[in-house]
Amino acid sequence: MKILSIHRIGLGFIGLCLLIAQGCKVGEKYTQPTLNLPDQFRGDTLSYFADTSSISNISWKDFFHDPTLKELIDSVLVNNYDMKTALLNIEIASKQLRQNKYNYLPEVDATIGSMNKQWRSKDFGSGPSSKWYEKHGTKASENMFTYLSQFGSEIGFSWEIDIWGKISNAKDQLNAEFMNSQEVRNAIQTNLIANVAKGYFNLLMLDAKIEVAKRNVTLNDSTKKMLELQYQAGEITALGIQQTESQRLIAASLVPELEKEILIQENALQVLTGKMPDRIKRGTSFEHLFAENKDISLGSPIEILRNRPDVRGAELELIASNANANIQQAMRYPSLSLGGEFGVNAMLPKNWFSIPGALLGGIGANLTAPIFKRKSLKTKWEVAKLERDKAELSLQQTVVEAVSEVSDAVITVEKQREQLEYARLRVENSQKAVQNANLLFKGGYATYLEVITAQSNALNSDLGLVELRQEHLESYVNLYRSLGGGWR
């Protein structure tokens, strides 16, 4: 009866500990810090389109209209090595998170077979184990007699009760790290899409620049022929022909330089697709690559908390740091663990599996507490709290930089749109100047220098328009990416 009462007390103690464990989670519960976001982005001239969809919510397949570009982006997202690595990291984090669920269960180990045989001599301090020798009908020797003979098989378990929430906090930490691995993948995707689009735009603009250079070479050839006729007639000196040739060579030298840049840009895009250097297919026109003239809305700055992967990732890192601080705090408190074993054990091999004679069993509980660990546990806890503070500062900084990046992007879009209009007017004016200079030169009212100057201005104007057109396209991509678009 006394033994039964002791068992009941022990079971009651264990049950009480389990109940206490449910409500003893230590540490601070995560709360989102105050981020002090503004009501709208500085320079947001698009805020009056309040009932249109935020650009960040548009899928990249709907944002871009060029089918060749979309095909290229698809290839990059499937074959890029950074994307493949990010997907593997997600799988690793997922496995670690799934494993954490089993930490609430006891550990069970099996000893399939164990043997322990020890020998002693007379100076060991005890007599021979006479019973063993009596069973075998022999006399015990004084030296190297069998002191211990043991054979066994057993199953043992150990189970630490999660009193202070170490396992649950570890789950919070692993869950945040798993979600952050997905945000890293999303961030890689948004950057890849932006880089692919910019590289594709650059190829189109380089093609356009080559056309401009070749067109100017043809124009200079025509002017040179006209000057050669006048030189033969004695109306001008050889200097006019030489200056026209210099102007033609300037335009002609642009062609191999641009061809070099095209090959390098194609190689860079192929690297993003995980392929060897090769030609990149592109559309026939750089117009209508996306709906850049469509009314859009930036949304409110608070939306970047939901849309930008880097901001979401920074907050998840803060959540993980907060959980780790709680874990380090719990490590300083007492821990309760249960253990036991069940199996067979015998002195002689023939009795190894004798049932019930060789059966063994045991159960125990330990309540342990750290007393002196050279201040290591306290230091780890204090460092973990400082790491949490660092993560919060990192989140604050990421949010400030994100809001500023959006503001820069929208201002750039608007101001480059104005510049683009002036550049188009400049090109139209330069083309008229070339036509008028040629007519006046033929009529004797203008010199060849005025013709060369007009053609040089036209070349620079055409190239400047192409470059500004490229920058304008890239500014829309930067705006799309800065708002968190591209990962959906």
H and E string: HHHHEHEHHHHEEHH
Strand order of the largest sheet: 1-2-3-4
Distance N terminus to C terminus? 69 Å
Please state the CA-atom Rg, rounded to the nearest Å: 40 Å
The largest pleated sheet is described as: 4 strands, antiparallel
Oligomerization status of the protein chains: single chain
- Number of beta strands: 4
Structural class: alpha+beta
Number of helices: 11
Shape: elongated
Note poorly predicted spans: 47-52
**Portion of residues within helices:** 55-70%
* Proportion of beta-strand residues: 5-15%
Mean model confidence by pLDDT:
84
Give a brief rundown of this model.
With 488 residues, the chain is α+β, with helices and mostly antiparallel strands. It contains eleven helices and four strands; from the N terminus they run ααααβαβααααββαα.
Q: How would you sum up this structure, described in words?
A:
The protein has a 4-stranded antiparallel beta sheet with strand order 1-2-3-4. It is built from 11 helices and 4 strands, in the order ααααβαβααααββαα. It is α+β, with helices and mostly antiparallel strands. It is elongated. The two termini are 69 Å apart. Helix content is 60%, strand content 11%.
